[in-house]
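Fold these two proteins, one after the other.
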Amino acid sequence: MPFVHVAPRRNSITPDKQRRFIATLAATGIVSQAALSIGASVEALYKLRHRVGAEDFARAWDAAVERGYSRLEDCALERAIAGEERPVVSRGKVVATWTHHNTGLLMFLLRARRPEKYGAVRVGDLREGHPVYEALKVRWEAERAAADAARADGARASLRAKLLGMREAVLREGALRGEVPGGAGFSPAGDSLPPADGEE
């Protein structure tokens, strides 16, 4: 509902002008162009927008700007997909044209329309369910499992080395006393060790 001036002056922005301004703004998205179409200054329109009682006009203005941005997005999308024709000039004459596709514009639109797939990932965005979070989680879990397995292998190898060292020490001590392995009174700790990985 347009704002109605209590005591309109000759240069007041009438309800009819307000409607035409909003229609032009929705079509173009440009405030200055819409203002020019009704013969009003941008300053006067902003002043009207902020007046008490002009809340409906302000809401219509916002909706018109949003519609203008939607049209702009549509134009940008069309330009990104179809590209734009550029001339090939030879000796001062246009001899052909070629289609230029703006990769920067394409990526901007993809990031804006599909942020979950193409958007720049900020640390705050990384939550459970986010595709990047889930991919990193799988990678971290695989790396942790590999690290755990490597630690376990290292611990087993270290324990086996210690047991073999103890066995060798017991065998040397028994040899010094003249004891025969397997004979009476000979019972070296670790005489029978489990096979190492890969041994039968």
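Now the second one:
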Amino acid sequence: MLDVSEQKDLVAKVNDLKVYFNSKRGTVHAVDGVSFEIYKGETLGLVGETGCGKSVTGRSFLQLLPIPPGILAGGSITYNQQLVCGKCGGSGCESCDPKAKTSDVEKVDLLNLTNDAMRKIRGDRIAMIFQDPGKSLNPTLTIGVQLSEVFLQHRTKEILVMAGLGNETSAVIKRYASQNNRIFDNLLVALSGNRSVKSRVDKAVAELVTKALSDTQVSNPAKLMDRYPHELSGGMKQRVMIAQALACNPDILIADEPTTALDVTVEARILDLIQDLKQRRKTSVVYISHDLSLVRRICDRVAVMYAGRIVEIGTTAEVFKNPRHPYTQGLMKALPSAGTARGELLAIPGNVPELIDPPKMCRFFSRCAVAIDKCKKNDPELESVSGSHSVACFVNKADIASK
């Protein structure tokens, strides 16, 4: 696990994010004032019940929300993008960081990017693994073709160099790409008409795809490239999705319940794979899940969501050993364990409140055993209780911990 006290490099910051959805009955406040930070090389677990806003929060990073009916009602997601050194192009020189091969950091508000600007980041600097790999892969295209798209979109310069077209040629093409996408597209069409050039480019892309699949411990990547999604098992499809997401060494990987559709043994292998790749590449991971035992195993920090809000956030040890919010405590008590006697599992009484135009009050009020009058009149904000541990609750923190 990553030592939170040593976290210095802030990769992204979510500040007061609000995502609403219009409906016939009113406005659904799916995400309502969510804030948290992501640090380099850490795994942040985003946990909560179905419908609490976890996936909507994750998709907001990449502008993958259906708008309309979705509405970005407020807030920001600031991504600290590492700029490649303009002097050496990332090969390393006296002007840039010798380890990162970067010269500066640019703060980018992901919510306000144009479509073209987001396309350059999506799949390259920030990637996402979706819950059901079967629905994420195109059934009419081979695995090789689908993975090739990522490299052709984001690693054109490297492909051209590998194809023997030289740094000078690739630099010109790269400049066209940044200035005018239409010119760049026409140029690629012209290149594809040259059989010799096309053959060399195809070979270079195939090498990159094979390497990406090999990194996910696929036994025969060359053979896998020619297969269609329906020919693969669930675990193999998810490995393909991981290979696609990590193809360009992203700074942030958003994993939206990537093992839900898999059996336990395959799940364990996929989790080990994500952890191994994360540690080797220093990628920051936002792991979205409702499985607390799984989150406890792989995450450095945990943010607990309830009804569109974060009610508690802290290190994994802080949240699991000393949960401070009544909702978090209820989740912990509902966890089955080997020492639990037979019988019914403990459950949190009541139901999740409707998020259609919710009143300004604590959203856990109707289900809370320690609620006070203030909870019915105001919505609590996150406040620090110790170190990096914060809780959104009006009740005395010591009283909650003793319940």
